[in-house]
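Protein 1 of 2
SEQ + STRUCT:
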Amino acid sequence: MIEKQKFFDSLPPEWPQDLMPFIQQKVSEQGVKIVVLDDDPTGTQTVRDVTVLTRWDVQNLTSVLKEPDAIVYILTNSRSYPLPKAQDINREIALNLKQASLQTGRAFTVVSRSDSTLRGHFPGEVEALIGALEVEVDGILIIPFFAEGGRFTIGDVHYVADGDWLTPASETEYAKDASFGYHHSDLRKWVSEKYQGRVSAEEVVSIGLEMLRKGGPAMVTELLMKLAHERICVVNAASYRDMEVFVAGLLQAEANGKRFIYRTAASFVRVRGGMRSYPVLTSQELGVKKNETGGLIIAGSYIRRSSEQIAQVAALENVVSVEISAPKLLKPSMRQGEIEEAVRKVSESLRQGKEALVYTSRELITGKDEAESLGIGRKISSALVEIPRRLEVRPAWVIAKGGITSSDVATLGMNVSRARVLGQILPGVPVWRTGEDSRWPGITYVVFPGNVGGADAIAQAVEKLRAVGRG
């Protein structure tokens, strides 16, 4: 572990110029739609007032390309699927995007948004995209920086912050993920590991903090102009100003004809779209209407921090805890009974104006390999989805904790095909307003990432949502 502030104080000073006006001008001039393929719904955690699609047919994509917004998110939930299925999803979206672009005349660029702690289908998803787009890609840019979640890349090493300390990503619990584990924090070595040696660490280009903070956008452009034939490049960043310097150089390189695919966390998207930071939403901005019913919290994430957060929510006054046994959900003879009892308890709590906290028992059940572990996760998540699907009472609001859980609750539990990102309820925690065709139109839906927030974070969100009061 490294003391964060002392480490940051040792770095060169940030680039002094505010580059956001230049970025905004370039984004406006180019008119390119930034299409973010999000492998779980938490990638909307840095943006405000953008559309999210959960269906990607040509008609939907054509409609959204006609809209003036610079950014659109497409929720693929591909991290919950085995690699072949994830690749099929990416290919399908790429082919449909090409058709929609031809119909609208609007160019697009693709962001493959994934986890800031390096979990996900890389390089498989990027390879599928490049193959389906059938364009010459000069570089694949790896940018896991995510300031709101304390994810920084310095000296090519990716760090995860916990309070005042930084830990190399490979030494965290995220690196031990049953499906997407890894051994290296150095991103060049991580790339080589993920390519299973087909790409050596020495072949990976790096844009370091020295270049960003001393050379500025011009030096970034100069380096990017040299990339060709899908060369992989990792990007360091310890602040949003670093990201602005990189994006300013990137936009100039793209204006000069270069083409890139981005594999990134959430912070890059905001800067690439020319969007400044916003404060978190006030209680009044969350869109919760005064009502008599309670709110619904559904938690599926198993990491240690999620369990700590669930415990603090359970301790709040007027919260009814409904624990669902994961082992029972995996037994066909017991599964339906466990779900039905949970639905009964949740309905009763909501009608009484109390918050219902639904969570799976905390033992982590894994399979013998990645595919089996993902399958177990989907069986458990599909059971959690039955809660909102079967409820006869509309909650005041909904929080879903964990990437796969929040995706399934939205798409399968609430039938959301389109939503609008309002902003963030806490740093890195997005809030959606569901579309008119969803099961509960216009409901406030909090997409709570599994790996974000302190122990009291969900409890803070609950208190903020409650603040509008009852009718």
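Protein 2 of 2
SEQ + STRUCT:
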Amino acid sequence: MKLKDAVNIDDLALLAKRRLPKVIFDFMDGGAEDERTLRANRDGFSRYRLRPRVLTGKGKRDLGITLFGQPLAAPFMIGPTGLNGIHWPDGDLQLARAASKAGVGFALSTASNNSIEHVAQDSPGVKFFQLYPWGDRNLCARLAERAAAAGYKAMIITVDSLVGGKRERDLRNRFAHEVNLSPRVVWDGLTHPRWLASTWLGRGMPRFENVAEFAPPGANAHELAEFTRSQRNPKLSWDDIAWMRTKWRGPLLVKGVLTAEDALLARKLGAEGVVVSNHGGRGLDSAPATIEALPEIVAAVGDSMQVLVDGGFRRGSDIAKALALGADCVLLGRATLYGLAAGGEPGVARALTILGEELERVFALTGCGTVSDLTPQHVAVVEDYFRPRA
């Protein structure tokens, strides 16, 4: 199969798996412990059925939204993911360029391999910055300052990975923010020559460029990986979120919220948005699927915050269900990473095209012309589907 022949996200995942060594694909694809939450994110969509309305006369469809004042061509954007340079050279740039050309947003991770400034200069589209609250407040304040100066429109603070999840695929592969060159891993790389030639030879292990200024001068990839591991902050509290609110003037989102109580606390401290997220099933295993946690949070905050959601989105119908349940936008993770690993920027573009076309088809078949047309009346859990409605 060639990239142009991929008809869905699973096809891109297959292409990515063929190109990547096992240790790299497992890092991208895996979750924590028994991977219950990883599977729950996908299985959660099956609990809901779409309720199509017919003959609505809405032959024209517009997927566009406005998110924190920024116009986007579709109600999804590329979410923050780290260490993208091990999947494709300059992976963060490839993702940002594809997002910009598609008119959708892009969120850059603190753990990116291309710097805040480089990505901003390379892609003109709408960009958010995701902050891992590593280290002391000086580090966080400096990253926020750089993101603001580079033109990032919003900040997303990730709060659900204050300690690392037990990702057993990575443990077996001895992977921890860097590739351990054991004989088995070396052989794995040699048997994937396309990945080896394009990603490793002449470049070596990608560095965490955004934190290079905080590490010893001239730190290599291994030393920067060690530095990031040492900077986790398990004592982070809501007081730190209140402090970050004073350091960032634009929209602020708290990512990793799974309960109404925490969404309301975020609102109380001045956050304009939350991201309903379980870190892609990579942190706390047995956490709820995000599509299951979404309705409670939407009901709690109403129109007072913008609610984003991530976790397991592979189909346009998945995105439609989240929108119908009240999400303002969906963040894509593995879906676009599969495209990146399969074919760089064209692979990311293919993933975005697939999801956009699928979502537009869902709009047509449910009688919707715009995102605002999708309401809770368009979705029901399986056991409630045929119950009388008001």
